[in-house]
Design goal:
With about 100 residues, the protein is mostly beta strands. The chain is built from no helices and six strands. It has one domain: Thrombin, subunit H.
Length: about 100
């Protein structure tokens, strides 16, 4: 399995700063770059607010890390993907599987 981690991905955490009007501005900090196995799962289209929206989905496997959360996002090939779910692949904390989605 470790030999299948051939793609380089970056995990980013949100950085929130107050905007002075009671809200927050969100920027992204580059936290870490890791090796991954990336599987493209296809995508779909949906209509939202009278607009057509396309979604691309990925399944990304990395070495297990306890600091990865669904608040983070993943960068792969210059595209940002939100992390929708994550799970311990084999229950032994060796690999972490991330289900990711991007709006195209």
């Amino acid at each position: 399995m470790i030999g299948e981690l051939r793609e380089r991905v970056t995990l980013q955490s949100p950085l929130r700063t107050a905007d002075g009007a009671g809200g927050a501005n969100i920027s992204w900090g580059e936290d870490l770059s890791v090796w991954a196995k990336v599987e493209q799962l296809g995508g779909d289209e949906s209509v939202s607010a009278d607009r057509l929206a396309a979604h691309a989905r990925l399944r990304v496997t990395i070495r297990y890390r306890k600091d990865v959360t669904t608040e983070m996002r993943l960068l792969w090939r210059l595209r940002a993907y939100g992390i929708r779910a994550l799970r311990d692949a084999d229950g032994d904390k060796r690999f972490l599987v991330l289900d990711c989605e991007a709006r195209v």
